[in-house]
Design brief:
four-stranded antiparallel sheet; four-stranded mixed sheet; elongated; single chain
Length: 206
């Protein structure tokens, strides 16, 4: 008896952990719908690769790749957990670092920027702003220019990975949107200043 492969894909809300019934998922270019339990069951071919992407308007869509090569026969259980989003929502990109007074993209920042590239690929209808923020040290106008240069270089990197230029806007906010008390003249620890030096992406349109 020849073994067979079956995919059991569960789609659920990341926050409420509720399953998402009757929603679209694209598997190797073909559109499938989840059943009333938020599940798609599908027979898979041996020695094959599959690309799976959710397609729901009000969620941050995710994708995953699976392959049946070298997998034991049986059911492959996979879950896509999606975050509900709306226009105007902001997300901080963790671990985007720059050397002091510089704006080149460091190798350790590429990993995080690649996550945004993937989000942009998985959500082709999105337009986003990439905003760079500094802490309050240094002059206001210097910080604005520095943060604009940092945003520009991050956007250039993302565009170089195949994202259309008109889908992403670079914006440098300098020290105008501090998220704690550390404005000019306030004594703060290095860790408190670091919280303000952040890179965010904001959904402008979906």
């Amino acid at each position: 008896l020849k073994g067979k492969y079956d995919l059991e894909l569960l789609l659920r809300d990341k926050t409420s952990l509720e399953n998402l019934p009757n929603e679209n998922v694209r598997i190797n270019a073909l559109l499938h719908k989840t059943d009333e339990n938020g599940i798609i069951k599908l027979g898979l071919e041996p020695n094959s690769k599959y690309s799976i992407t959710s397609e729901i308007k009000t969620y941050m869509n995710e994708s995953l790749a699976i392959a049946t090569k070298d997998e034991p026969f049986g059911i492959l259980k996979k879950t896509l957990e999606l975050e509900k989003v709306e226009v105007g929502q902001k997300f901080t990109l963790e671990n985007i670092f720059y050397d002091l007074n510089k704006w080149d993209i460091l190798p350790e920042s590429e990993i995080e920027l690649n996550k945004l590239v993937k989000i942009m690929h998985d959500n082709p209808g999105w337009k986003v702003e990439l905003g760079s923020h500094t802490d309050s040290r240094g002059g206001d106008s210097y910080n604005k220019k520095l943060s604009q240069n940092r945003s520009d270089s991050a956007v250039e990197y993302i565009v170089s990975k195949g994202i259309q230029k008109d889908r992403i806007v670079a914006k440098g906010y300098g020290e105008s949107q501090l998220i704690n008390k550390c404005k000019n003249g306030v004594n703060c620890s290095e860790d408190e200043h670091r919280l303000n030096r952040r890179t965010e992406f904001k959904i402008l349109g979906m």
